[in-house]
Amino acid sequence: MTRTIAIIAPLIDFCQFNVDFNLRLRKSDRELSLITLHEFARTGFNPDHQFRAHDYSDDIPSAGFYLQGLLHMHGYRTILTNRYDPESLEKLAKEELFAVIVSTTMVITTASLLSLFSAIREKIPGVPVIAGGVFLWKSYLQYEQHLRSPEQYPAHPGMLFQPANSGIQADVLIAAPHGISSMMQVLSETEKGSRASLMHIPNLCLPSKNGFVFTKREDETVDYNRDYTRWDLVDEIFPKIPVRTSIGCPYRCGFCDFCQLYPRIFMRSPQSLNEELTLIKNRLGGKSAVIHVSDDNVFITKKRVHEVCGAIEASGIRNWVGFMRGGDYSDGEISAMQRSGLRMGIIGVESGDQGQLERMNKKQQAPKVQRGIEQLDAAGIAVLMTFVVGYPGETDGTISNTIGFLNGLSLKNLMASYQVYPLQIFSLSELTEPATRKKWQIEGFGETWSHYSMNSARALEACHRVFASVTNVPYHYAGESHFFNRGMFNYETRKALFQLRQQLTLSMASENNFPQSAAVFRELISRMGFTAGNTDEGLQAITCRPGAR
């Protein structure tokens, strides 16, 4: 009999760390990109209108597709979802499930994970819940660190593996950087029912009434050139397709803990990339899609620019986005990106202040980063810039420099956007090291902290200041279509629309300010080419929650 496994792979944790400065349609929660606003106005501000653009809430992270292909290869039937709301879980509960597998790759906090498991157990009782992924591996490394030196690395509420959480509503936690061998052994043992025994399987954590029980540790051997997603075996291929071209990051930014999870760098060969991209191309069958390269830094070396771009160009898909390091680029590198169909580079600028960049150990120069962003924009490649606000050394002056950096960009095509992230002190980052904490007088962890120059409350205020002060670059909207924007509006109109949307957000954030919001909204709609009409009704269908996370 074929066993059915539910794969729950959340894409978005409910504890997101970027500050939300986006307008949304009240009824559908859809972000008000210019294409959405234009269609909303064109339909007479009908809140029930079904919008044409892709809804990114349906996206699945790479781990979900990988697990589905792997389990199908081993003869299991699967149901893959990124949703864990009560209705979705109740629908899964109607299936005759053998197990529920949870990917924690996109989970950010222990509170989120505990809530996720509780929701699953409530709606799907009696079915084994097995979890693995990046968050569990990070939690285990943090646990090891605490065991080695409990005084230097004390337990705190953000830690997963501590007695208070041993009642976690999951049966098996896989704590390993890869974990697939252990997962398959767990499934094999689960087939035995009451005769199953898991203690011989390595790299497991088994929650119990008496605490967490850990099985033996065993190093994994993984050939990432051969171990990629079997796109020919997944049930459905989506318009946004995640691909990983490398593992690890050679840089050691002070706020980041990812370099501790995968300290060794592995770059897949061009041949391996070609094989996976061919599977995708064949599976698409002529349909359009965008490749989302999920590496921390897709262009680790200059040679890598040409290897990755060459592989994507050769695949014929030629439509992709990826995370990349800031800096200026040669004409040859820009040309390679254009030929490969790079649509957007996601760049962690982090600060517009050179002193902050040096304290963060970013090892990059702000003028070169600025030049690179301007090069990409001029080449018709969109840029999403992210900024960390509140790192030790942050002051009103450094915030002013970040605002100046953004307002000083020369953007010929206006295809850049930005997001701000209040500093989070992650468990394995340099900011948890005793010497660093003493040096910068750091107190606290996670999203509640203080240090010699700022605290977490002031960092959030600084994020608001950045949003209110930056008029040269729009805040990021995931559904923004530069193809639509450039085809529909000239440069001056696009810039005016972005600025009016920002003004509308600020106005709506102020209490009892409907008349001003209505005036801004009427001008916004007018600049789009529509008559005023029933704009008050349209405005009432829009909401914002500025500063929400």
From TrEMBL:
Needs which cofactor?
[4Fe-4S] cluster
Keywords of the record, alphabetical order, are: Iron, Iron-sulfur, Membrane, Metal-binding, S-adenosyl-L-methionine, Transmembrane, Transmembrane helix
Instruction: Tell me which InterPro entries the record gives.
Output: BchE-like, Elp3/MiaA/NifB-like_rSAM, rSAM, rSAM_horseshoe, rSAM_sf
The record's section on SUPFAM superfamilies has: Radical SAM enzymes (SSF102114)
Q: Does the keyword Transmembrane helix apply?
A: yes
The question of whether Metal-binding is a record keyword is answered with yes
Bilayer-crossing residues are 97-120
Query: Residue ranges of the Radical SAM core domain?
Result: 235-458
Q: Which GO terms describe its molecular function?
A: catalytic activity; iron-sulfur cluster binding; metal ion binding
The protein's name:
Radical SAM core domain-containing protein
Q: Which organism is it from?
A: bioreactor metagenome
